[in-house]
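Handout, section B. The chain below has 211 residues.
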Amino acid sequence: MFRVRNSRGSIAAVLALLLGIGLSTPIQAQDTSGSRSAEKSATGQAHNPPSAGGGYYIEFRAAQIGAYGHSYVMYGVGGRQNFADLHPMGNYAVMALGHVLPVPANTEWDPDVLKLPVSSRYRRNLNAEQYRKLLAALSAAKANKSPYWNAVTNNCNHFIGELAQAVGLKVPGQFQLSYAFVPALRELNEGGNAGTGKAAGEHRAAATPRS
């Protein structure tokens, strides 16, 4: 975890270090040539095969970008696909500042995220009640007129972790790279049964405090 100091020079040094070790590249700057991109409809949703069983579902994903990766969710009913995430607004300087202070964020979906390769994913089938709770959690997040992003206290892992808790899943510590968070979420809830497609209601939920 990063310790915030009042010294302007210390903060500048931290930001320089963060930039030097490779912050997540803005999505628009990512070279996606050769990667698999989903075809999009006029609404920005992707055309992919219907989910297994044609029912409610949520899929947690880690996109490959920069040193950290980026976590987001796909959810819907049958072949319908919707997406949601939390991301900082601005350039590299704003993102760097977000490692020591809260910075403005956005929950408006950016279709360019779908151009990024998916490094890991975890899909769960949901029942109608779980899906209702998911939609309620998403509505509450989008109703926040002043969302913020901070690398330690409120990042993309926290966002999808809250959605996981809403549907009754256990959540690992969110202060880790997205590349590790989604696999950890799958392992925590599935263990040796990962990939079996069991309904989320078959697992007992246990809320985990944010790290």
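Note. Helices lie at 8-21, 92-97, 128-143, 156-166, 178-190. Compare this with the example in section A.
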